[in-house]
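Notes from hallway chat w/ T.B., transcribed later so I don't forget. T.B. wanted the structure written out for a chain they're using in a teaching module, and asked if we could keep both sequence and structure tokens in one place. Agreed to drop them here.
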Amino acid sequence: MSIERIVLAVAGSFILLSVLLAVYVNSHWLWFTAFVGANLLQSAFTGFCPMAVILKKLGKQSGPAF
């Protein structure tokens, strides 16, 4: 699995999990959803993704985006 697919899978999982936590636990979890979305947006424009850097250091193969 490439870095791009891992980043997208983790981001999607975080968003779904935080929405579920906002519905069933506390609505403040939506701030985490906003943080993940903002990070995805800034990485689309800058090409910098902290998770991609970590995955590269762990030896994962990079695809065309990162």
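Follow-up for T.B.: The CA atoms of residues 22 and 29 lie 5 Å apart. Might be a good example for the class.
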